[in-house]
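Input record (one chain):
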Amino acid sequence: MKALVTGGVRSGKSFHAESLVVAHEQVVYVAPGPPADPDDDPEWAERVARHRDRRPAHWVTLETTDLVAAIEDGGDDTAVLVDCLGTWLTAQLDELDAWDAIREDWEPVLMERVDAAASALARTSRTVVLVTNEVGMGVVPEHRSGRVFRDLLGVVNQRFSAECDQVLLVVAGRVLTL
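The corresponding structure, as predicted from the sequence alone:
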């Protein structure tokens, strides 16, 4: 099974994604964003801690932005949960120094990375559940960086959803199959 779970902030998407793999004996929880630094953002660090506390102790947490390796490495009996594509995209944009650069200078490299990860998803026979944010349903962001992120996350979500058996939208804790 390959599933993409999307929704707004605090919609319940991560909790639902975890429920999709909880029956697996082996789960790799991929955290593709930077580790939370309690000194920089205590609220974010608290949220990360709550996520960790509710996961079974035998789940392995892997902090990496290498989604290809995270999806491909390991046996077919190990489920992979990626939480979330939004933090992965942010890390990619940071690494490419894309926030203030000319889009044509970094976008081809980004799209190669997106395609490589989505292709790894297409090839694997493992259970993979991807969590992502749905950010394009509200106000147009005031700043360029917000508009770039919103637009690119929409592209990323479409590319990954094309490789999934299920796409689920979580709104107020309710799950809708798309």
